[in-house]
Amino acid sequence: MPKAKGKGRRHKYSYNVNRKRLYRSARRRAAPRIACSHIRHAWDPSKSVAQNLAEMGLAHDPNKAVPIPKKKLLGMEVETDQRDQGRKIVRKPYVVNEMEYEASLPEKKSNTLSRDLIDYVRYMIQNHGENYKEMARDEKNYYQDTPKQIKRKINVYKNFYPEEYKDFIASLKQEKMDVQ
Fold this sequence. Notes:
The chain folds into two domains: about 20-65 and about 90-105, no CATH class; about 115-180. Helices cover about 50% and strands about 0% of the residues. The chain is built from nine helices and no strands. The longest helix is centred in the C-terminal third of the chain and has 18 residues, at about 160-180. Helix 6 (about 115-130) crosses helix 8 (about 145-160) and helix 8 (about 145-160) crosses helix 9. It has helices at about 20-30, 35-40, 50-55, 60-65, 95-105, 115-130, 130-135, 145-160, 160-180. By secondary structure, it is mainly α. Keywords: Nucleus. One of its GO terms (cellular component) is nucleolus.
């Protein structure tokens, strides 16, 4: 197989390029990436990271914000080292307040089951009731689930949609009563 053109020649190093200068300028231009929108809006690019965080009432260094007490070697007494080193004034307390409020909101339940799994479970319950061995032998059991796997899928459906499951079982009982 022939070689690609131009791969065999020697590459020349360019001595004229100042690579340190290029690297520094690229670093200087990069702004800090801030994930929280509250911090992003209150950020002042003319100040350092430590100054910005101090104004918002946030800690730059967690080890300095909440120091671990050191124990004495001989006695088991804890040193009480209470230094009030220049408590900084919080000029933007709304940032912390908004973050605390957002953290206190209840988390949305985003877990849902696929429509295929819901239809599969409903079909199995409708045709076989609680007989898991019969469900495992059903022709619609494409993935060849064992009786325990089918039971687990039905339990997952029960946990995710308890109201819908109760309504479904009630409708099945209604149908059986109507047939008799």
